[in-house]
UniProtKB/TrEMBL annotation:
Transmembrane segments: 12-32, 120-138, 159-184, 228-261, 311-334
Keyword tags: Membrane, Transmembrane, Transmembrane helix
Signal peptide interval: none
Name of the featured protein: ABC-2 family transporter protein
Length: 340
């Protein structure tokens, strides 16, 4: 059933649009590059671009020493603030477990990390997923095939295959993107080396705000896993709106409202401060456009019902909850609405 659904998508106009978007994304990937550790540029008072022409190793060593100085300053800080204490402890652990206290080439990982969650990629991925799953069932309604499906003894098999596709396809599409990104990065920056070193080496801003002593490999696994969770959640809710909507326009509108709802609620200032803090960290708009502010970062503590909770862990739990809530809503729709 799942293979049949995939073939149907590929043969449709939507399939051609998706293929075109993937080819476009693969082509533009060559230009999705961060400033490497061996490069430096800035804007002067006249807003003119000034490029540092020193040797790459010299620039890289200076940047690395600046990061070490920041971590050491934080590690040597003594305060009673619980939210700062964790950053201090993580800084001390980073210094304690540092394998090499000198610059090492991490160019591959810095570029790959930049491409793994680039906002442009995320927007294209969301467009692809919404195009697919907002039409996953409305197409059946428009062509009157839904009545045939619902009268069949295999109706649940068909419906659950569509739901399963909303989990599998985001992984396959994002996985394909990562494979292409890996190959392009190898061509441009060579094979990956030093992935066992500290994650702060590939982070430009907020190196002291990491939520743990991650290695580069662990940090990338966390980032990729989080992005997969986000994409699957969007796919599942797009499918849900397709199951309950009469046409594609209503389904896409419902999905877009769902995506911007959390961000919109942050503008409602009379909501409780704790809720606004959570929504500011875990809404889909910011996760798509500013993932590096959240993934693997320490966002502080928050008081919920008298309990002090780690905000990052709470937000990760909310992401997982949203995924399972979407799955639950789809199953409920199958059993109580479509087949009643």
């Amino acid at each position: 059933m799942i293979l049949w659904e995939i073939k149907k998508i590929l043969k449709s106009k939507t399939g051609l649009i998706i293929l075109g978007l993937l080819i476009f994304l693969s082509g533009i990937m060559f230009f999705l590059k961060p400033t490497l550790e061996t490069e430096n540029s800035y804007r002067n008072d006249k807003y003119e671009l000034v490029i540092d022409d020193r040797a790459g190793d010299e620039i890289a060593k200076e940047k690395f020493n600046e990061k070490i100085n920041q971590i050491e300053q934080m590690a040597n800080t003594y305060v009673n603030d619980e939210s700062i204490k964790k950053i201090i402890e993580i800084s001390r652990e980073n210094l304690r477990f540092m394998k090499y206290r000198e610059y090492k080439d991490v160019s591959f990982f810095k570029v790959f990390d930049h491409r793994a969650d680039h906002p442009f990629m995320s927007v294209v991925m969301v467009i692809i997923l919404v195009l697919i799953f907002s039409n996953i069932y409305t197409d059946e309604k428009i062509s009157s095939v839904d009545s045939i499906i619902l009268s069949s003894k295999n109706k649940f098999k068909v419906l659950y295959s569509k739901l399963a596709l909303s989990i599998i396809l985001p992984i396959l599409i994002y996985g394909l993107y990562l494979v292409i990104a890996f190959l392009v990065t190898v061509v441009q920056n060579g094979m990956p080396v030093n992935g066992e070193l500290e994650a702060f080496r590939i982070i430009d801003n907020g190196a002291i705000l990491l939520n743990g002593t991650y290695t580069i490999n662990n940090y990338l696994i966390l980032k990729i896993s989080t992005m997969i969770s986000i994409f699957i959640s969007i796919s599942v809710f797009s499918s849900f709106f397709s199951f309950i909507s009469a046409n594609s326009l209503a389904s896409i509108s419902g999905t877009l409202i769902f995506l911007v709802l959390g961000k919109s609620c942050t503008l409602i200032k009379f909501l409780p401060g704790e809720l606004l803090t959570i929504l500011s960290s875990v809404n889909y708009v910011d996760l798509i456009f500013y993932p590096d502010r959240f993934i693997g970062m320490y966002c502080g503590q928050i008081n919920v019902l008298g309990n002090s909770l780690d905000l990052t862990s709470l937000c990760n739990g909310i992401l997982i909850f949203m995924l399972f809530m979407g799955l639950g809503l789809c199953v409920f729709t199958f059993k109580k609405i479509l087949t009643r």
